[in-house]
């Protein structure tokens, strides 16, 4: 497992390439991803990289979709992407900082007790670890708006479930390995469900549909069942303003 000194450019079919900055999930690799994507956006906006259509950042890599006019154009574009990846400065500062409500009561946290037992903790101790952690959004994936957030304290680290659930309730807070996530939609899933948030993480009608972005920071504020249900009613009625949970925006 390493952070690459020189980024690697790998072909991905005939219409995409992947730039790898490392082969591990780490804040250092992800900072280079975020720094590169910012520089890439600026270059594309300035028409410095013709043929680049869009890009998808991941934990330690960025996939760039392209439409090249010729083989020579592709070679020139690859060289420019590598040069940009080498010169882009890591983005170590966090993006927006969110403090989101989460309910960790047993009826919304079916795996909390089992996780606590597996780690020799009480459910209350697990909740204290979760709410004391500032999670970094590394990437979005699997479902629209689903954040992969690290780093879960090692004391709470558990593998994925041996048998995934066929149906995970939407907005469930879940953990696996050293990661935390929220399922924006009802879907199958194999992570441990430890709570739920009333906040919608994806709204197709919004100007920016996904609430969270790579680079954002998230902390959880514990709310009880009554407060969760009240907030959920507001969310369903469209009167819950998610901006009230935004603590800081760069």
The count of helical stretches stands at 5
Main β-sheet description:
8 strands, mixed
Strand content: 25-35%
- The helicity comes to 25-40%
CA-CA gap between termini: 32 Å
Please name the defining characteristics of this protein.
single chain; 250 residues; alpha+beta; 8-stranded mixed β-sheet; 4-stranded antiparallel β-sheet; 14 strands; elongated
What does this structure look like?
The protein has 5 helices and 14 strands. The protein is of the alpha+beta class. The chain has an 8-stranded mixed beta sheet with strand order 12-9-10-7-6-13-5-14. A 4-stranded antiparallel beta sheet has the order 1-2-4-3, with helices on one face. A two-stranded antiparallel sheet has the order 8-11. Strand 1 (3-11) and strand 2 form a beta hairpin. Helix 1 crosses helix 2 (71-87). The chain is elongated. The two termini are 32 Å apart. The mean pLDDT is 94.
Question: Quick gist of this model?
Answer:
The longest helix is centred in the first third of the chain and has 19 residues.
Describe the secondary structure blueprint for this structure.
Blueprint: E1 3-11, E2 16-22, H1 27-45, E3 52-57, E4 61-66, H2 71-87, E5 97-102, H3 112-118, H4 123-131, E6 135-140, E7 147-150, E8 165-168, E9 172-176, E10 179-183, E11 187-189, E12 192-196, E13 217-222, H5 225-237, E14 246-248
Parallel strand pairs: 5-13
Antiparallel strand pairs: 1-2, 2-4, 3-4, 5-14, 6-7, 6-13, 7-10, 8-11, 9-10, 9-12
């Amino acid at each position: 497992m390493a952070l690459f000194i020189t980024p690697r450019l790998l072909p991905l079919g005939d219409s995409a390439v992947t730039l790898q900055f490392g082969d591990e999930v780490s804040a250092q690799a992800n900072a280079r991803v975020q720094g590169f994507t910012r520089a890439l956006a600026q270059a594309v906006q300035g028409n410095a990289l013709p043929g680049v259509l869009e890009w998808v950042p991941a934990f330690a890599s960025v996939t760039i979709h392209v439409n090249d006019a010729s083989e020579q154009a592709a070679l020139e574009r690859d060289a420019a992407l590598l040069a940009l990846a080498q010169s882009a400065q890591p983005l170590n500062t966090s993006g927006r900082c969110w403090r989101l409500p989460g309910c960790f009561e047993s009826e919304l946290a079916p795996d909390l007790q089992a996780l606590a037992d597996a780690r020799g903790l009480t459910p209350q101790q697990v909740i204290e670890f979760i709410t004391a952690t500032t999670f970094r959004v590394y990437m979005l994936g699997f479902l629209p708006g689903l954040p992969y957030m690290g780093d879960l304290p090692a004391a709470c680290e558990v593998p994925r479930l041996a048998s995934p659930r066929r149906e995970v309730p939407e907005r469930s807070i879940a953990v696996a390995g050293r990661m935390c996530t929220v399922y924006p939609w009802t879907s199958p899933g194999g992570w441990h469900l430890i709570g739920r948030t009333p906040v919608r993480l994806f709204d197709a009608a919004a100007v920016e549909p996904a609430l969270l972005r790579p680079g954002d920071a998230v902390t959880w504020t514990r709310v009880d069942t009554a407060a969760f249900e009240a907030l959920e009613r507001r969310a369903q009625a469209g009167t819950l303003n998610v901006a009230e949970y935004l603590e800081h925006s760069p």
